[in-house]
Amino acid sequence: MSTTQSAHSEVSAAGRPDAAPSQGAGSGPATPAPGEKPSAPPRFILYLDGPAYAQTLRQLTLWTHHVLLPVYGREVTSQSPWCSVWWEHPEAVAQLHGLWLAWGDLTGPGSDMTGPAIWHRDYMSSVMDTLRDPQGPFAGCKPGMHRPKEKPVVEAMDPFGPPPPPPPPSPWS
């Protein structure tokens, strides 16, 4: 099997967040045997770590590169940036994972026929607009050039200590 065929079969299985790569093209979770509990719904990626995070990110990457971007990836401009290493932006990972979970829920076997339209209307456009906004997580990234986003500075404060004093009155009040 070629690398392309292997990636295609993996993304087909990874098209649904609850599908393991070995389950076959487009299949959902296997029906539990009598006496077995159904599998738990997928956990949000920000709650995962270690191998569970790596496996989920791999499936998300396959879906993003083989489903989302070929269909919905528009030209990269300064007004509509995209980062070629999007997985290094935690906000992008979180947004895309939520989009992928909604995709699996609304387009998989057993979903309503209006699911894809709902996914487009309620999820895809808002997530892609947020990610591709000039002030969004990819601000400063250009094709072939990743720029880590600066985190907001937060003053260290004892969360169990007394509240901070109120700001001084404005001289213009």
Report how far the terminal alpha carbons are from each other.
Answer: 74 Å
Q: Please, what is the average pLDDT?
A: 82
Helix content: 40-55%
Helix and strand run: HHHH
Number of strands: 0
Beta fraction:
under 5%
Radius of gyration (Å) = 21 Å
The parts where pLDDT drops under 50 for at least 5 residues are 1-9, 20-31
By DSSP (H or I, 4+ residues per run), the number of helices equals 4
Helix-strand makeup class: mainly alpha
- What general outline do the C-alpha atoms trace? extended
Main sheet record: none
User: What oligomeric arrangement do these chains adopt?
Assistant: single chain
Structure, described:
- The chain has a domain at 3-19 and 44-132.
- It is extended and about 65 Å long.
- It is an all-alpha fold.
- The chain has four helices and no strands.
- α1 (3-14) crosses α2 (50-72) and α2 (50-72) crosses α3 (90-107).
- It is 41% helix and 0% strand.
Short overview:
This protein has 173 residues and is an all-alpha fold. The chain has four helices and no strands.
Helix/strand layout:
Blueprint: H1 3-14, H2 50-72, H3 90-107, H4 115-132
Helix pairs in contact: 1-2, 2-3, 3-4
Labels describing this entry:
41% helix; mainly alpha; 173 residues; disordered N terminus
